Each structure stands twice: as C-alpha cells, then as structure tokens.
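Hey everyone, long-time lurker, first post.

I ran two proteins through the pipeline my lab uses and got sequence/structure pairs for each. Pasting them in order. The first:
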Amino acid sequence: MTKVIIKSDDNKEFKISTKLPPDIIKQIIESLGKYEIYEEELDSLLEIFKENKSIKKLIHKSQSFDIITIGNRAVRKAQQESLKKGIPNVYCKNGKFYFELPDGTITTEVPDIYRDVFEKFEKQEG
C-alpha cells in the first residue's frame, strides 16, 4: 500500500492510501503541478486513487476528471464574465431558481433581465 500526502498552497494536507505503485503516483502528482487545481477538484481526484481500480480504469477516470475540470473552469469563467457585464447567474436546486446578482446577492426574485423568459416558462408549465 502506498501512502501519499499532498499539501495544498495553504498547507492543507490530503492523505490517501492506494495500491498504485509509488512511481505512478509520483508521475501523476508531478503532472498536476502544471495545473491550478481547486480544492474540490483535488478531493475528486483523490477519490479516484482511493478506489484502487486497475490502471486502465484509473486512466479512464483521470481523463473524465480532466474533462469535468475543464468544463467546471469554463463555467466558472463564464459566470464571472456574466457578473462583470451585469448579468445575473441562474441556478436551480430542487426545482427552485436562485439568482446571483452582480453585487453577490443571492435571491429567488426573478431579475428584470430574465422576467420575460420566466413568464413564458411559467405559461408553458401551467
């Protein structure tokens, strides 16, 4: 069993044990150095290691992780750009809509910019 401790920039430690050989772990960690990885992404990656799957499955999951990471970053960037342009972000949880306003406020009140869209949506649902 290989025991690995990864430290984040703020010295938070992530500890895992895995059946993967140390040289594979070292290669993976070194390749991570070229990316700025968010804490939740690192948690997801460590879960992949903890599963102790075969190398083939690990590579497949690692590629899926890369795709999800790229997608998450693109979404975050688009959300930030929208807010800079004064356009609220829209989220839906348990069928309820939430709006993040450019000033950082979270509300359930439909902003004027989305009012027409939500009125049409409500008519179709009703």
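...and the second, right after it:
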Amino acid sequence: MMAALKEYSHLTRMMIVFESVPYFDMNYCVDWAIEMLRLNYETPSLLILAGLTKPVDTYEAKPYLRNALKELNLKQKTGDEGLITYCSYLVKEISQSIRVKGNLYKLCNFFTDVDYPKFLNDFTVFIMLGMI
C-alpha cells in the first residue's frame, strides 16, 4: 500500500515497480526525483537522484531509488501486483493520449519479455493487433 501522500508525482507508480520491469529506463528516476522535490518532498536520496546526469547509470541509481522509496515509506510492488501497476500506468497514459505509440510499444514488449498472468491474455491480443 502506498503511503498516504497528499500529492505525489505521477511517475511514482513507475518507481515502485522499477525492479519488476525488464529494461526499466532509470532516466525516469531523475524526472521523478525532481518532481517530488517540487512537491516539497525532500530526502537525501531524492536529492542525489535529482542531481544525476542522464543517461543514468542503472547500477549507480538503483540503490538511491530503493532508499528514496524507503525514506518516503513507499512500498515496492512485485509479482502480479507490480505487473498490473506498471501496465495500468501505461494504459492510463494511452487513455490520456500521452505517448500513445511509445506506450503501446512498451506494453507489447513488456508482455513478450515477462511471463504474464493468464488473466491478461485478452488484453495482450488487443495490443498485438494494435486495437488498443
């Protein structure tokens, strides 16, 4: 369960699943940290993440991202919960006409890279056919 934050960056949903997503783009953690600082959240790890230069070195950023999530009392989501959270983030962006082709591509690749649960089969067929 996510900590009771009054307002948080829309990228927070991606950050809490970063270890569940193959080929996660760690550059997003810099954007997330900057947004969180703008929302008046300040932790030592957020400050470090916000100061990283893109392209971000995954091995350098991961410990700071893990620590930032802990410092903000945000629980990482893994397994089916992580999969659903990540997919729902991408679908929400698609529904708001944000990076539609890029997010569809991410969804398609994600489903081919992971052993996704059977309950997502119908959804996957629509993605593969380009109907979503």
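Reply from user beta_strand_b:
Welcome! Quick read of the second one: DSSP finds seven helices and no strands in the chain. Residues 79-95 form the longest helix (17 residues).
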